[in-house]
Amino acid sequence: MDGFLAVLDWINTQMYSWLLIYLLAGAGLYFTIRSRAMQVRLFGRMVATIATSRETTEGISPFQAFAISLASRVGTGNIAGVAIAITLGGPGAVFWMWMIALIGMATAFIEATLAQVFKVRWHDGTYRGGPAFYIWRGLRSWKWGAAFAVALLFTFGIAFEMVQANTIATTLETAHGVPVAVTAIGLAILTGAVILGGIKSVARVAEWVAPLMAVVYILVALVILVLNLDRLGLVFYEIVQSAFGLNEAFAGTAGGITAALLNGVKRGLYSNEAGMGSAPNAASTATTVHPARQGLIQSAGVFVDTILVCSATAFIILLSDSTVYAPGMDVEGATLTQSAVTHHLGDWMTVPMTLLIFVFAYSTIIGNYAYAEVNLDYLTGEKHEHDLTLRLVVIGAVVVGAFLKLDVVWSLADVSMGVMTLINLVAIILLGKWAFGLLRDYEAGKGRTAFIATGNPFLPGTLETDIWVRDNPTLATTEHRA
Length: 482
Hints:
Elements: H1 2-34, H2 38-41, H3 43-51, H4 62-73, H5 76-89, H6 92-117, E1 120-121, E2 127-128, H7 131-139, H8 142-176, H9 180-195, H10 198-227, H11 232-243, H12 248-253, H13 256-272, H14 279-283, H15 291-318, H16 333-345, H17 350-380, H18 389-401, H19 406-444
Antiparallel strand pairs: 1-2
Helix pairs in contact: 1-6, 1-19, 3-15, 4-10, 4-15, 4-17, 5-13, 5-15, 5-16, 6-11, 6-13, 6-15, 6-19, 7-8, 7-19, 8-9, 8-17, 8-18, 8-19, 9-17, 9-18, 10-15, 10-17, 16-17, 17-18
């Protein structure tokens, strides 16, 4: 196992220390510039669109698609992942998480918009799309679409499910002495209860669970911030100083600027998923009147995930005293976050935090399944009727992940995440002109006009579609409330 872990760590170092950092940052900056900083200009529109996106006449609503992606985004990456980033990279890792999220909002808009415009109609009344589909339909390459689909199936159907289960099992065992075997069995039952109903079942559960858990966690963090207002300025200073290797306390122990940058980008990418190609799978399933609408909604998801929820975890930890967190301390993942919360608010928070961590991780498990189902659909085709294979694989991954060592699980997830991210980044850079055209079309109609592909002057070419046409009843009403 040690040898296998060493190989995984070497691969991760090669991918994240130069290749993915430059590609993610470069793509995010490119999309930000080409879209004229849409994440800043249209931020108010993002909020308004989310607020009016729960109604739909068929299939999955834009809000449900947003909730699925939020359920997947807001999970152990926000509680355990941020804690790991701070432990390995110091407070400076938080700064780089912020930076990758701010430019990642533009990337999230591009990939979600592409997922919508290149989506296909499915037999169950919903839609299917995402990177595999826009690589196939936009770049005319079914094989590269299949390569992405296989990478995502492994990443979200197996590796990331293991990560979530591992966090739940570790938290319950550490805080409450619950045997791992008991947790594994319980998770298998709860996971099967939802995913056996397919993607619509996941959407119904995620619509309520994902937003609620994010709000509750942010409220807990706000209480802690209010109790520590006198130290907020110092923590901000510490984060910025450590990000550039200027804090000697962290330069020696945590590895300085390199460790801060490396861990901030890795954990930031894992958490907000911008550029990874995961959230577009959920974005594509929504029934909406304009692709850019869903792009705006998914862009806001990155803000909620990192700027709000991840920052909440970071401040909870960094506002603690040295008995909870100090450079070089060997405290793993969610355990550190939970210890920090109880330090601030008292031991009575142990049970609520355990429940919150459980819900975070569980919602991610079912959200990840939705991504896997979309990509299995791509590989097998519309005529294929889902059997129990994928669902049993996901349930099996949950059980196995509960027993594995945390470092092995995270390293495996990092490798698989890196591979699918590389494929997706190349695709969205090549197809970005379609999203830019759709953004211009959306702004020209002031966000009130439905998108029609036929003869559209903003598109870079002819779009083959039976969805974005005038006789589509979904688009019959061109004025909408957003």
